[in-house]
């Protein structure tokens, strides 16, 4: 299946065709065990410029849904449209390319490579887009400074705190100006001041034309979003 992309790219900023949603989910069904559905005919639309909070009790499938939205899991049925194109049945290699070009992801546990430096962890996604680390290093260093990661960038993830690791993961996700940014409890290990910094950054990213989706248990974070979808 081919995937025609209705966008044009100017520099590092991608512009959608007017009226096309970055992400559109239609009647998605997902189950880990046959007969036990985690999601049953779930649908939602995510607009550019908007921050959506996914909330609900533990075990309701919020993280699973985020992995589906990020094209890391496949639904049993239903469709996921990215920029107006149904990408549900694309080959794995096509999905990987699409993720690298259009998505940023902040994992709940940061998911940093312990064998690489902090700077390499932030810049590694550039390689999947055919960019060199050197070309994106200035932006990576700017992001680390913005989020207060005031430690030598050559240090390894094992030498930083959980809160610092989460901020490093956010820098990695923001590096390529993704048009769809997914974050799984991005403020879970952060103090109130840093939580505000991160939420403000996600809102700023949305205002620059991205669709931002956050899984959170925090009522304060959910209240700062443009809308809340409860599972």
From TrEMBL:
<dbReference type="InterPro" id="IPR003593">
    <property type="entry name" value="AAA+_ATPase"/>
</dbReference>
<protein>
    <submittedName>
        <fullName>ATP-binding cassette domain-containing protein</fullName>
    </submittedName>
</protein>
<dbReference type="Pfam" id="PF00005">
    <property type="entry name" value="ABC_tran"/>
</dbReference>
<dbReference type="InterPro" id="IPR017871">
    <property type="entry name" value="ABC_transporter-like_CS"/>
</dbReference>
<dbReference type="InterPro" id="IPR015854">
    <property type="entry name" value="ABC_transpr_LolD-like"/>
</dbReference>
<keyword id="KW-0067">ATP-binding</keyword>
<dbReference type="GO" id="GO:0016887">
    <property type="term" value="F:ATP hydrolysis activity"/>
</dbReference>
<dbReference type="GO" id="GO:0022857">
    <property type="term" value="F:transmembrane transporter activity"/>
</dbReference>
<dbReference type="InterPro" id="IPR003439">
    <property type="entry name" value="ABC_transporter-like_ATP-bd"/>
</dbReference>
<dbReference type="InterPro" id="IPR027417">
    <property type="entry name" value="P-loop_NTPase"/>
</dbReference>
<comment type="similarity">
    <text>Belongs to the ABC transporter superfamily.</text>
</comment>
<keyword id="KW-0547">Nucleotide-binding</keyword>
<feature type="domain" description="ABC transporter">
    <location>
        <begin position="23"/>
        <end position="231"/>
    </location>
</feature>
<dbReference type="GO" id="GO:0005524">
    <property type="term" value="F:ATP binding"/>
</dbReference>
<dbReference type="GO" id="GO:0005886">
    <property type="term" value="C:plasma membrane"/>
</dbReference>
């Amino acid at each position: 299946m081919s995937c025609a992309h209705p966008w044009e790219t100017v520099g590092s900023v991608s512009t959608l065709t007017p009226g096309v949603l970055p992400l559109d989910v239609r009647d998605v069904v997902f189950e880990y065990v046959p007969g036990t559905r985690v999601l049953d005919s779930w649908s939602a639309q995510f607009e550019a410029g908007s921050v959506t909070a996914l909330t609900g009790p533990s075990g309701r499938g919020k993280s699973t849904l985020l992995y589906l939205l990020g094209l890391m899991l496949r639904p049993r049925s239903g469709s996921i449209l990215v920029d107006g194109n149904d990408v549900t049945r694309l080959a794995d290699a096509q999905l990987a390319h699409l993720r690298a070009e259009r998505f940023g992801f902040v994992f709940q546990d940061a998911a940093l490579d312990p064998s690489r430096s902090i700077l390499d962890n932030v810049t590694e996604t550039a390689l999947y887009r055919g960019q060199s680390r050197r070309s994106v290093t200035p932006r990576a260093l700017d992001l680390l400074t913005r989020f207060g990661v005031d430690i030598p960038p050559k240090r390894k993830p094992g030498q930083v705190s959980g809160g610092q690791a989460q901020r490093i993961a956010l820098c990695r996700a923001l590096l390529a100006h993704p048009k769809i940014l997914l974050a799984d409890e991005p403020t879970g290990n952060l103090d109130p001041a840093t939580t505000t910094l991160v939420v403000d950054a996600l809102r700023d990213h949305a205002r620059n034309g991205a669709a931002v989706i956050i899984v959170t248990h925090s009522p304060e974070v959910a209240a700062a979003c443009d809308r809340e979808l409860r599972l």
